[in-house]
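Interim report, section 4.2 (structural modelling).
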Amino acid sequence: MTTVTQAPGNPLPFGTSRSRRTFAGRAIGWLRANLFSSISSSIVSLLLISVLAKAFVSLVQWGYWNAVWLVPDNNPGACRAVRGLGACWAVIPEKLRFILFGTYPFNQQWRPALAMLIFIALFYVSSRPKWWRKELALIWAAALVVIGLLMWGGIFGMPYVSQDRWGGLPVTLILATFGLAFGFPLGILVALGRRSKLPAIRSLSVLYVELIRGVPLISLLFMASVMFPLFMPDGVNIDKLLRAQIAFILFAGAYLAEVIRGGLQAVPRGQHDAADALGLSYWKKNGLIILPQAIRHVIPPLVNTFIAFFKDTSLVLIIGIFDLLTTAKTSIVDPAWQSFSVEVYIFVSLIYFAFCFAMSRYSRHLEGQSKPN
Amino acid sequence: MTTLKPALPLSRRLHLALTDKRISGLIWQVVVVGIAVAIVAWLWSNAIHNLSVRRISTGFAFLGREAGMPIDDTWLPYSPKDTYLRAFIVGLTNTLRVAVIGIVLATVLGTLVGVARLSANWLLSRLAAVYVEVLRDIPLLLQLLFWYVLMQGLPAARAAWKPIEGVFLSNRGLVLPSIPLGSGQLWVLLAAVIGLVGLYAIRKRLIARQMHDGRVRPIWPYALALVIGLPALTSLALGVSWSIALPELRGFNFVGGMTLAPEYFALLVALTTYTSAFIAEIVRSGIQSVSRGQWDAAMALGLRRSFVLRQIVMPQALRVIIPPMTSQYLNLTKNSSLAVAVGYQDIVSIANTTLNQTGQAIEAIALIMLVFLTISLGISLFMNWYNARIALVER
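Predicted structure of the assembly:
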């Protein structure tokens, strides 16, 4: 492995020989430069090509050639026949509505679908640097209120749907988005607290961050689902989804605080001094001078934290909340479709992948922009 | 502020006092701490009240009671008749066994993928990039469930896959040949460890002498003597007999050898591959952080690429790699708690069962926190020590 390492920053020797102008000539040049540059490299290439070709053929055979795409009226007989040889993609359209929306009333499912679109529009708007203004907070507040109205209903002729009927992708998006929307301000406060000169506030912030970061998320979720009722006075009963949401906000707050603290440390001392010299109060100094610079420094790691957080919402499966992964897992409990879980998991993986990949591409794009040439 | 004239009106003096940094700081602290204490006290009084209503006694006395929970996959002897304390210790060893082995495997795999990502071979580097991107962008829990379903979909023990002689992969898990360890074998292992420590000391000494006169002294004779010779001598002297226990199929299950249960194996594979993707990125950016000039200078000296990577680039890259690596190790350890989703009984899973059986929620969660905070602290201390050791020595 070590012998084929390329020196970093070394531009690929594309078309090594200038005399070859034809397409075939350039293709051969490219192959020689990138796949067969040395004996060891050639061996690695040939090995990989043979393994990949084999894997590709069996994948196409399983996933396309022998696969069953549709079955008549919920009868997996055709799928049973190809078991082990081909994929049963028919399970996806069969269970699609349940995977995406859970047990939300069937004829009302346009509401969570619309909520999902609003979420995606919200993410898109938030990703444009030209929108990074004060109005964005208002847009977020408005969008979250509209999503709440859509999901609960009870007005404008939409029947009320209680939270325990919610499920699927909207729940995943709600947990992630509300977690970030509330966790972010919390993270800013804690990060400021951790850098504060006041010892009591500093140690409280450190205690909070280290306690949350020191334990697995699952134990926080167990706490939210099992211990939370213990800590409430008699008669107060908070919904399970809301309890998990609170756990996620606390969790996100601690992790975001650490990222933001990194940004705060990167703001030069002179900025503080200058703000002090202008006679700005603590909150004005941080809100107007320090935080905008600090957050700008850490946007790529912030997006990475968002990705991790989005993936972590899947852990609610363990406390029985119907997010996307739980609906997927539940959809194949149905005995008729039990043996086709791989197909369902692949489908759900693609959904998660689409969101996370978009975010990671975006983070890389920002990183590329911030670097001076 | 102490030189205020008494002529100022009271409201003005109050305003000045409130804007004084020290006083406003004090007020802020009192307010924030007061709120925090009030919330905790309120929650605590509710909890005490609720516990007394439900007749649950607080305290760790329940640890001495009989657990009555079955644990399938253990290294330590355990039966449901044992106490909760014993169950917790078994759970802790289960957590450590998946975390430690996972960390080692993920480091090796991640380093290989990270180096492959920088390979001059286009196919290899693209493949490594795809590996990293796919594994990083899918939730670990989903990957774990996926691996577990695949494990369950494997053929039954009778039709087990046999990639090499003595290795069986079936829906009973992975069965490997093992070497039965008695006291004699342990002595030999101890000899090998002593040999390694001795070798380390000798290496240090040899390098010190090389620094002195510039002559390279070979280390392999010492290695041969200490790491191979010493254990071999011990083995001969004690008359230890070595045997390999090959597993074989009897009836519906395997006898002999070492079995990795499907739950454990799925968890180990999921944790290793997922974390290795992150480690690969850390290794890649670490290697790339070493400036181009270091490569050029080393190559100009006529050194081989592999030597340059090992002796010149890697030691410098390690300084960038170690801190984020520490947090990946911590993540892997914390992520091992996902075991509960496939029914592997780690500490979190056992605490959860205990909590359901006894209602001792606060104590169970406190134990989880204690265990994980201790592990985190242990890993951090070790990695900080290692980091300090490899840090750049400024002269």
